[in-house]
Predict the 3D structure of the following.
Amino acid sequence: MSLEAKAPVSAKFTWVPRQADFDAFARLSGDDNPIHVDPEFSARTRFGRTVSHGMLLYTRVFALLEQLYPGRKHEAQTLMFPNPSFADEELTFSFTENPEKTNQVLIEVKRCADNAVTLSGTCDLGAKQ
């Protein structure tokens, strides 16, 4: 994908986040909220298990955007997290060039098990550096 006339207009990737990913991100970010890192605590919440950090999902999105659009600056992004992502549940990451706005990529992350959207947003790309 390169936002050029002959480029593909969408791409999909899958990833299965693990509890070890949540734990590593908590150590790196300092966000050690028990909803992310304590299965015993999380079992007693409305989610029933640990939930991914939203920014952990975004770091994956960022890396995939870097693969799809190497050298393009990320000028702005919008992110919403309408549903949780859980450890050991496969996710699909979808990227689609916005036909209504040049240099914008529409982003969606869904749980494969039930198609629930766990991240939706956009990324405005700048010129190649």
About this structure: DSSP finds four helices and five strands in the chain. The first helix runs from residue 19 to 29. The two ends are 16 Å apart (CA to CA). The chain has one domain: 10-128.
